Structures are given as C-alpha cells and as structure tokens.
Amino acid sequence: MSRASEPPTPQALLSGAAITTFRLNGQFLTVADRLAAPAGLTAAWWQVLGAVLTEPLPVSGVARVMGITRQSVQRIADLLVERGLAAYESNPAHRRAKLLAATDEGRAAIARIGPGHTAFAERLTEAIGGRAEFAAALAALTRLSEALETLADEAAASADARRTGG
C-alpha cells in the first residue's frame, strides 16, 4: 500500500488545522476591516463593540468572549470611549472593574456595517455551497474549538497538580 493513500497523521492534521485557522483568521480580519471601514471602525473595534451591544460587560468579560487578552481589549475599550462609541459604567458586582457599554453612536456605527455584512455573508454562503455546507463547516470549527478548550483546561489542571505536588 502506498503512503499517498494513507490518512494524514494526527500531527499533520493538527499542523494543517492550525495553519488553515491562522490563515482564516487573517482572512476574516481583512474582510472585517473592509466591512467596518465605511462606519469608521476597525475589525477590532467592531469586535469589542459587538461584544457589548446587548449588555455591558467588564473588559475581562469581553476578553473571555473574544478569546484575547484583557490588555488588548482595554486598549481598544479606551479608544472607543475616547471616540464616544462606548462608555464606562459602574459595576455593582465589582467597584473597580467598570462595565463597558456601547453608546447610541456606537450602535449606529455597528448598524452602518449591517448592509455590507449581510451582502458579504450571502456571497460567502453561496461560494461555500449553501447554508447546509456553511452550517456544517461552522459545526466542525465549533467542535474543534471546544476540543481545544477542553484539552487546554486538562493540560492546565495537570500542570497545576504537578506544580502543587497533587
């Protein structure tokens, strides 16, 4: 049996998934920047504003939702507040960790992205082969993300146990 017909090794699959995901991330950021630009936003600003459209969140909560560092979100949040697109509100659950909330101006900026976002989503759905294909791709990506999170949590718990001798 030739090697070409054998399925890829787990290591090759992991590497391929990582490289493809990094490429997808770059592609999504490029598209998001193009869609957000007419509204005076960047992809990162759009992401942070989008996280607080329905309810105010602390910066750490936005970071958790987005899967990025609190420091990165803090820099963006400060810029959004400076430009009047978001505001800090008091947090009844934590006196020092203010809540970030979208302002009316921020909501209006996000609304201006809507038509272009809808048109691009429809073109992408068609290009990938329709809603069912797109839904299947999303489901696979979601399973991959959940598996990585579970394994990362297990690795962290194992490392903690080794560190504490437990």
TrEMBL record:
The chain positions of domain HTH marR-type read: 1-146
Q: Which SUPFAM superfamilies match?
A: Winged helix' DNA-binding domain
Species name: Streptomyces millisiae
> What SMART domains does its record include?
HTH_MARR
Q: Which InterPro entries match?
A: HTH_MarR-typ, MarR/SlyA-like, WH-like_DNA-bd_sf, WH_DNA-bd_sf
Pfam families the UniProt entry points to = MarR_2
What's this protein's name?
Helix-turn-helix domain-containing protein
